[in-house]
Every structure is written in C-alpha cells, then in structure tokens.
Design brief:
By secondary structure, this protein is of the alpha/beta class. It has three domains: about 210 residues, FAD/NAD(P)-binding domain, CATH 3.50.50; about 140 residues, FAD/NAD(P)-binding domain (3-Layer(bba) Sandwich), CATH 3.50.50.60; about 60 residues, no CATH class. The protein is about 30% helix and about 25% strand. The protein is built from nine helices and 28 strands. The chain has a six-stranded parallel β-sheet with strand order 1-6-3-2-10-22, covered by helices on one side. Strands 12-19-13-14-15 form a five-stranded parallel β-sheet. It is elongated and about 70 Å long. The two termini are about 45 Å apart. Flavin-adenine dinucleotide (FAD) binds next to helix 1 and helix 8. The site of flavin-adenine dinucleotide (FAD) has 32 residues, from helix 1 and helix 8.
Length: about 425
C-alpha cells in the first residue's frame, strides 16, 4: 500500500482485499489510524482509509493554551499529512454524508460510494447551544481553532474600541468578557482570560483595572466532577485573578452588551463565550446504529456497534457502558485515545482470525487548568493543586504527541509549548 497517500475530496481506488474506513480524524480516529498504520506497514491486503474534512486535527484539549493569546491558535492543529507521512494510511479530506451498514458502504461528499470490510465511526461531538434568546447570534462556542481565533478577534476589537473611549464607565462596559459554563472547558477558558488579558492590556497601553471578566454557571457551584476542596480552590484562584464567579442562576437572555440571568441580574458582556456542554455528532443519528437517550451510538463491550459485526464506534460519539462502574463513559480525549488503539488492536485480531477483546477504560486522573500556569485535579486518587497539576496536564499533551508522532513530534511541540508559556 502506498504510504501517506493524500487526496483532496475523492477517495482513492484500491486493490486491497479489505478496506478499513475510519470516519473522523479527531483524537479517537487519529490514534486508531496511527496504531493500525504502524501494525500494517508492509501489508498490501488491507487498506486504511481515514475520511475527515479537515487536514488538521483540532487538538481541543489544548485550546486553553491559546484562547486569548499568544496569537497562535494554529498551535492546536496537528497536521494529518505530517502524522501519516510514513504510514500506510490513506486520507480523504471530505465528509461522510451517509452510512449504509447493511450494504457495508459509506457515501463520501456528494455521492462517492465507498465499500468497507470494517468501519470505525469516530465523528465526535458538537457544542449544545440551547434556545436562549440572543445566545446563538452573540456567543462564541469553543470547539475549534477557528473559535479561538474568533475570540482573539473580538478581544482585539474590544481593546481598540476601548482605546478610543474617554469615559471610564464606557471603557469598563466595552472591556467586559463573560464565559458561560462552569465545567472544565469554561473554567479553562475563563482562567486563561483572567491571567492573560491584563498582560495583553498592559502591552496595549490600556489600564487592566478597566477589565471585567465573569464566569456564569447555572448550578450552585463549578467543576462538579472534582472534589469540593478542589472546586473551592479553583474559585479562590479565579477570584484572585479578578474573575467574578456568578453561580446559581441560568441565563435568561442575551443582549448586545450584556447577559441577563433568570435571577434578574444583568452582567455587562461585550465578548461572550458559551461553554455550556456538548452532544454527540447529530448526523450519526441517521446512520442506522442503535442510540441511547442522549443520541450517542451504543457499543458492545469490545466497542463494536450494538448488533453490527463489522462496525466499531469510538470517542465522544460512542455510548460505552463501563462494566466496572456501570456508567456511560464521559466525553473525554483520554477515553478517545484509549479506544482508538484498542479498536486497532481488535481489527488486527480479526485479521488474524482471533476473537476481539473487551475494552477496559482507565480513568487515571483529571486536570483542569485555571490560567496557563496553575491547575487543579487528581491522579491515581491523589489531589494536586497549582504547579504540579498544570505540569501533569501538560504532560498529558506530550504523551499524546508521543502517541501519534513519536519523539520528533513530541520534542518539537513541547519546545513550542514552553516558548508560548514564557
Ligand atoms: C475546549 C475543550 C477542552 C477540552 N479539554 C479536555 C481535556 O483537558 N481533557 C480531556 O480528556 N478532554 C478534553 N476535552 C474533550 C475532548 O476534546 C473530546 O473528548 C475529544 O475531542 C473526543 O475525541 P473524538 O475523536 O471522539 O472527537 P473529536 O476530537 O471532536 O473528532 C471528531 C472528528 O470527526 C470529524 N467528523 C465529524 N463528522 C464527520 C463526518 N461526517 N465525516 C468525516 N469526519 C467527520 C470532525 O471533523 C472531527 O475532526 C475538551 C474539549 C473541548 C471542546
């Protein structure tokens, strides 16, 4: 098989007897393709075809590093042509528009029908934006490098507008930034704002005292996945950075320069970021697989789609019930990057005529950055706060780069990351 064959929008023809089609090149799809590519090097009887519209993987868990600066959000893009350069993985930069499990085919783009021997669905999730008046029109979601660029653009525009204003009150209204959603994503983004925006204002000659940064969470507290002492520390850290934390009231509606809570409170907000949750890729609901109540696709214990022998489901789009805890796995990169290689391993077993193995998830820890140089979280049951937590979080990035690109990629990106944090 040709190594690293890349096509724009049409899938390449193949002579291989068996084709494995991977739908989606995020954390789950990329780790699956890389692992399979390494194991299938030199074999001509199997083709690995990754279908993904974007030639760069959006490394979403790294977005906190770049949300408001330094102005290099592209850091969070991992180029597939570089990752697959020396691997027998063919890529097709297009979207799967339909899957026909009974016919063992996918439709790509406008109508190219591609048969498969095995299918791996890894199409991820999308942000949920509820029908709150004014929200969809005015809020930025935080789901891609493009979103981070939009946040940077709106921040710059607010700085420039404020620089022209003589009234301190008007400047304060203009320089008001709000993040809605006190889960890990919202806290990471608002923490980056709290730490970096004052520095960027000083660089621009603006007075950081004019800045207002708010975090709004409808529930009584933030970071519900962590223990209470960790949550309290995160709130204290945010407040020390100058972030005002509003809890216990939902957003009622959004106006041009403010959000209004159900409690009646009005919060100035020129730049608004929505981090209010995610749902499985909505297109996956049309692909003929069994879904759970939250529209994630239900898997068997070996990650095959329920009732389908030749299709696997992995990552955020998958509803996998952890038999040890009897819970559905959360939407986390650390689950996706365990599932991708596990399915690659099961595919190798199938190719060798051996039975597949059950997936056993390992939740080794969880870290949330509160600003680029401080964090909270836990690992193997031990709570960590401050520098140790942020170091552990950054080590998870390095481990991922090692997993998909080996030492050269990990070394290159670690140096870039350290340079950005200075
Ligand atoms: C801001 C942010 C911070 C986060 N931080 C963390 C963290 O610190 N730790 C952690 O564990 N998790 C974190 N997460 C969650 C983590 O990013 C997700 O769990 C992870 O991305 C899931 O991987 P995935 O491969 O399932 O989906 P994704 O990474 O979203 O990839 C899905 C891919 O499928 C492609 N696709 C979709 N539809 C189609 C189609 N029809 N045809 C072809 N391709 C398609 C998309 O273009 C995309 O590239 C964070 C998420 C966000 C948004």
């Amino acid at each position: 098989m040709a190594e690293g064959t890349h096509t724009a929008v049409a899938c390449p023809e193949t002579d291989a007897e068996r084709r494995i089609v991977i739908v989606g090149g995020g954390y789950a799809g990329t780790t699956c393709a890389v692992t399979l590519g390494r194991r299938l090097k030199g074999r001509d009887d199997v083709e690995i075809l990754l279908v993904e519209p974007d030639p760069c993987q959006q490394a979403l868990s790294e977005l906190d590093l770049v949300a408001v600066g330094p102005p290099r959000p592209q850091f969070c893009e991992l180029w597939h042509p570089a990752v697959f350069r020396n691997l027998p993985v063919r890529t097709c930069y297009n979207r799967v528009t339909a899957i026909h499990p009974d016919e063992h085919t996918v439709t790509v783009g406008d109508g190219q029908v591609v048969p498969y021997w095995r299918l791996v669905v890894a199409s991820g999730a999308v942000p949920v934006v509820p029908p709150v008046p004014g929200l969809r029109e005015r809020a930025i979601t935080m789901w891609s490098v493009e979103d981070a660029q939009e946040l940077q653009r709106q921040g710059e525009a607010a700085f420039k507008h404020a620089a022209r204003l003589s009234s301190a009150e008007e400047r304060r209204r203009t320089l008001s930034f709000t993040v809605v959603g006190g889960g890990a994503t919202g806290v990471e983004i608002v923490g980056t704002m709290g730490q970096l925006l004052p520095k960027r204002m000083l660089d621009a000659g603006l007075d950081p005292n004019d800045l207002q940064v708010n975090l709004v969470e409808g529930r009584p507290g933030i970071l519900y996945d962590l223990h209470e002492p960790q949550r309290d520390k995160a709130v204290r850290k945010l407040e020390a950075m100058g972030v005002t934390v509003h809890t216990g009231s939902m957003v009622d509606h959004v106006e041009d320069d403010a959000i209004v809570l159900a409690s009646g409170a009005r919060i100035n907000s020129t730049v608004l970021v929505w981090c209010g949750g995610a749902k499985a890729d909505p297109h996956a609901a049309e692909w003929g697989f069994e879904m759970d109540a939250s529209h994630r696709l239900v898997t068997e214990i070996d990650l095959k789609a329920l009732g389908h022998e030749d299709a696997y489901i992995i990552g955020d789009v998958a509803s996998f019930r952890n038999p040890k805890k009897n819970n559905i796995l959360p939407m986390l990169a650390q689950m996706a990057i365990q599932q991708g290689p596990h399915v690659a391993n099961n595919l190798m077993r199938e190719l060798d005529g051996r039975p597949t193995e059950s997936f056993i998830p390992h939740m080794r820890g969880e870290f949330v950055s509160v600003g680029p140089s401080w964090g909270v979280g836990w690992m193997y049951g031990v709570s960590l706060t401050g520098l140790p937590a942020i170091v552990m979080k950054r080590i998870t990035y390095v481990k991922y780069w090692l997993q998909v690109g080996g030492i050269p990629l990990a070394w290159k990106r670690t140096r870039e990351m350290l340079a950005m944090q200075r």
